[in-house]
Amino acid sequence: MTASNRVDTFHEPMPVAHRVGTWFIVTAIAFIVLGTLAVLEPFVAGLAVTTLVGWLLVIGGVMHVIHTFRAESFGRGVWEFLIGLFYFAVGVYFLMHPVMALTALTLTLAIVLFFEAVMDLSGWFALRHVKGAGWLLADAIATAFLAILIWMGWPSVSVWAIGTIVGIKLIISGFSRLMLGSAARGFEYRFANRLTDRLQE
């Protein structure tokens, strides 16, 4: 094999690793910045989430109404139309009354967190003899505590709960992507060193 072919062969994965690493790092920074802003201004972040949910509901309602004309039967068409109308109405309400919608979303969040805690607790019972299962129990307890905290403080906690939780989630996701990006860049660095060593043989 010639030196030129060897260089082409070993260089092939490097641009991919470089692009992937750069993409993860850029998105990580964006997530961390947005998450920090959400934690600092949780009410504004909560209203942004409410607006996003409102638009998603409106779009979902329109899609259901469109599917009404593609239904296999009259009954199915009526059902699709009613669901679409409901989604659309709720979405419009969310967009027109974001503060009230934020309060409703906060209560929904507490209910979802409670059921998530129950599922985590069930998973811990099933895996309690497995090493590391204690983290699942800790997660269940923390999630249940957060659900109870939101439930007991509702509706006053609506001004910070969703925005803060979304912000923390964005920060965690950002750091996860930062680690992945660093790992991809590390692969690129190790691959370049390996290429240099092979070319010197």
Characterise this structure.
The chain contains 7 helices and no strands. The chain has helices at residues 3-11, 14-40, 42-68, 74-96, 98-127, 134-153, 161-199. The two termini are 13 Å apart. Helices cover 87% and strands 0% of the residues. α3 (42-68) packs across α5 (98-127). It has a domain at 20-106 and 158-195. The protein has 201 residues and is mostly helical. The radius of gyration is 25 Å and the shape is globular. Residues 1-12 have low confidence and may be disordered.
SS field, number of helical segments:
7
Distance, first to last CA: 13 Å
- Largest β-sheet summary: none
Alpha-beta content class:
mainly alpha
How much helix, percentage-wise, in residues? Answer: over 70%
Average predicted confidence as pLDDT: 77
The low-confidence parts are 1-12
Give the SSE string.
HHHHHHH
Would you kindly provide a brief summary of this structure?
It contains seven helices and no strands. It is mainly alpha-helical and 201 residues long. It has a domain at 20-106 and 158-195.
What is the fold's blueprint, element by element?
Elements: H1 3-11, H2 14-40, H3 42-68, H4 74-96, H5 98-127, H6 134-153, H7 161-199
Q: Key terms for this structure?
A:
single chain, 201 residues, mainly alpha, 7 helices, 87% helix, 0% strand
